[in-house]
Specification:
Two copies of one chain form a homodimer.
Chain A lengths: L2 H8 L3 H9 L7 E2 L5 E2 L2 H15 L4 H12 L5 H34 L10 H8 L1
Antiparallel strand pairs in A: 1-2
The first copy, chain A, binds a DNA duplex through helix 2.
Chain lengths: 129, 129
Amino acid sequence: MNIGEVSKRADISSKMVRRYEEQGIIPKASRSDAGYRQYSENDVHILKFVKRSRELGFSMKDIKQLVGLWRNKGRSSSQVKNIATKHIDELEKKLKETQEMLKTLNHLVKNCQGDNRPDCPILEELSCH
Amino acid sequence: MNIGEVSKRADISSKMVRRYEEQGIIPKASRSDAGYRQYSENDVHILKFVKRSRELGFSMKDIKQLVGLWRNKGRSSSQVKNIATKHIDELEKKLKETQEMLKTLNHLVKNCQGDNRPDCPILEELSCH
DNA sequence: CATAAACCTTCCCCTCGTGGCAACCTCAAG
DNA sequence: CTTGAGGTTGCCACGAGGGGAAGGTTTATG
């Protein structure tokens, strides 16, 4: 299987498949006589794992570890849980920050007429704080 | 006022003050004989405006427009409101995405023992989907 | 058989907001 | 006069990609 095929199957751009290989997240692909990367079903499986992990917001650093643990049958589930828990903490922090921003922004927008006049409480707030 | 002073007053690194100037977000500072950038109270004010806008998550592109509108007395508040509303929409989208991730992650972590055994529903989910 | 389209390779630059470092210049105090 | 603090420019890095050039390969078609 060439990179285009594996890319379609895992729904990851060829570009990123090459990059993941560089970063050691997926094993180095063997090459055809012409130097084309060759992939197996197993590679598709790994790439889907990576994709799903990205969808859950894990960083590439985390994913590298997760793939390692996934392939290591002697892992302990606590290692995986630690990575996930740390990630949850970070996401919750971001969530709170975003909620704070939204709270302020919604309040500002509600008080802005949005007409042709220049008076604008949004600019007021941004300038005075 | 030199860049270090204005940087302290607005709580923005000197680096970023120079960068904002490059990007045309703040006016080009005049220079002393030695080539040092010179700032006024007004510049501090603009930089604080930028800082506050960043804290509300606006992009630099948005901020450039906001600063322009702020300084333009002939603006209409609808222009400002449009920028803010678009930003709110984007933040809400991100918020939902983060909440979705957290929902899944919390569910997974709850079902993971986190012990010395290799069995791990987190890896299961990541690999099978 | 030749040619064109589709595919692969590596390499470099762009994003966005920021930090760090190097090399060099200037200013104020001891 | 020297020293240290602070200024100047310029380049490189992050993370997670995207875009595209320049060139080699494969495959289908006239």
